[in-house]
Amino acid sequence: MEQQIRFCTTSDGVRIAYATVGDGNPLVAVSAFFGHLEVEWNDPDTRAFWEALAAGRLLVRYDKRGTGLSDRNAKDFSIEARVRDLESMIDAVGLARFDLLGISEGGATSIIYAARHPDRVNRLILYGAYPRLFKSPKLADPVLSLVRSQWGMGSAALAYAFVQSGDPDKVAAFTELQRAAATGDTVAEILEEVAKIDVTSFLEKVQAPTLVVHRKGDPLHPFDLAREMAACIPDARLEPLEGDIYPPWLGDSKAVVDAVRVFLGGERSASAAAEPSLPSGTAVILFADIVDSTALTERLGDTAFRAKARDLDATLRAIIREQSGTPIEGKLLGDGVLAVFTSARQAIQAALACGRSGDDAGLPLHLGLHAGDVIEEDGNVFGGAVNIAARIAGESAAGELLVSGTVRDLARTSAGVTFEDVGERALKGVSDAVRVWRVAQA
Fold first, then answer.
1. Are 77 and 71 in contact (CB under 8 A)?
2. Hey, CA dihedral for 114, 244, 162, 51, is it positive or negative?
3. Do 232 and 301 share a domain, yes or no?
4. Three-state SS for 425?
5. Rounded CA gap, 214 and 218, in Å?
6. Residues in contact with 276: Cβ distance below 8 Å, sequence separation at least 6, in sequence order
7. Starting from the edge strand earliest in sequence, which strands make up the sheet with 401-404, in order?
8. 230: closest CA among 316, 309, 321?
9. Which residue in 90, 190, 393, 422 has its CB near the most CB atoms, within 10 A?
């Protein structure tokens, strides 16, 4: 693959360099902070990452104002100016609809664009992104002063902050990229503007299905911010990855590529844990309900109970999305949390995590899982399988997860848990007895 570099001009007169590579459904990438299209393309790790994402699609990247091949004389580095860069580039390429990938600070730009242009963004991917910047001591005033006064040492300091556990050669390559991308003064001005970013109010306005990919050990952008962001975007799920290196093309870059490509409808990684696939129309159903909510309401008071329940509800929905499940709207704690999954393994992991969160909140849960055909209608799901999941949950003790034999068969070799046969149960409204199993983390 070879990229084609062209130029466009923003509404405020700034020249922007952009590159296209590949062919197919368009994916627009908004990279972080500062970059350089040519330098990145000539680096083996970076090029391999972008080529993997470009396989089977049209990949569009660009250098932000003040950086790379774009206008180095730009003065406005605000988030609105960065949105103008993106808008101008998209119009120049002539894209009507596309998928959008925002990396780190580029995530904020992408969130604003997706919220303002729901008719153009098919799907949104956010890697290492955040709704507002976490105040990191590694990017405190002394580092900014060093960046301005001695850009050589300053770029090295930033590189070690971004690539903490990387080998020295990777750190050196990232340092050289930063030096090629911009001057020290420009980098310091960009970082000062980045510190002002807060796109929290835009999260609930994003209509595109969204994937939030985040490395758990990211030292500059805490994982909790990613979890919060995924919980606030209406149709989002969180994909946690291992590692503590910021650039997506370093560390386990294959995991990042796999997550993105699967979300966009591409192939799944060959190394993904194998488990039996579910027939079309079949889902794994999770039902969770607070244990003895009436007594808790009387003990805590209605206002206090509802406040705790709402907080727990938000936590459970984030956990469900983190495991690629879909929480059903309109099902609130007290009445029950309902979610559906396409993977029995992920449903079990989500249920166990929900149980731990309920215990931590002092609101233990009944938890049940069943798999079967469901009927989808107006964002809700119905059917006998849903009722069985709710009845199985009702059989569980506080904090206990019970599953049907169907779920146990699907996940027996892939879920990393143990199953204890607790016998057949006569469930209300179900003609035949159902054998259920107690689940414990292995």
1. no
2. negative
3. no
4. strand
5. 8
6. 344, 409, 410
7. 326-327, 337-341, 282-290, 365-373, 401-404, 434-441, 417-425
8. 321
9. 393
Q: Mean pLDDT, 10 residues at a time, over the chain (442 residues)?
A: 92 95 92 87 89 91 94 92 95 94 94 96 94 60 72 70 68 80 86 87 94 87 86 89 85 88 65 44 86 84 84 85 78 68 88 91 92 76 85 91 90 75 84 86 66
- C-alpha to C-alpha distance for 303 and 352, rounded to whole angstroms: 28
Residue 434 · residue 425 · CB < 8 Å: yes
Q: Which helix (H) or strand (E) holds 355?
A: helix 344-360
Using CA atoms in the order 101, 103, 105, 108, what is the torsion angle rounded to 10 degrees?
A: 30
What tokens does 299 get?
Answer: 């003990």
404, 354: one domain:
yes
| Phi, psi dihedral angles at 226 (to 5 degrees) | -65, -40
Q: Which domain holds residue 63?
A: 4-136+180-263
Give the residue from 406, 429, 430, 408 showing the smallest Cα distance to 420: 408
Q: Which two tokens stand for residue 385?
A: 């399988």
DSSP string, 130-198: -SB----GGGSHHHHHHHHH-HHHHHHHHHHHHBTTS-HHHHHHHHHHHHHH--HHHHHHHHHHHTT-B
Spatial distance between the Cα atoms of 51 and 296, rounded to a whole number of angstroms = 55
The CATH number that applies at residue 34 is 3.40.50.1820
Kindly state whether residue 165 falls inside one of the protein's structural domains. no
**Distance (Å, rounded) from C-alpha 21 to C-alpha 55?**
9
Compute the distance between CA of residue 278 and CA of residue 342 in angstroms, rounded to an integer.
Answer: 7
Q: How far from chain centre, in Å, is Cα 379?
A: 21
- The CA distances from residue 299 to 292, 333, 398, in Å, are 11, 17, 17
Q: Cα angle at 343 between 339 and 346, to 5 degrees?
A: 75
Residue type, 434: V
Count of domains observed in the chain? 2
Q: How many H helices and E strands in the chain?
A: 16, 17
Rg of the chain (C-alpha set)? 24
Q: Give yes or no: residues 209 and 61 share one domain.
A: yes
Residue 278 corresponds to which amino acid? L
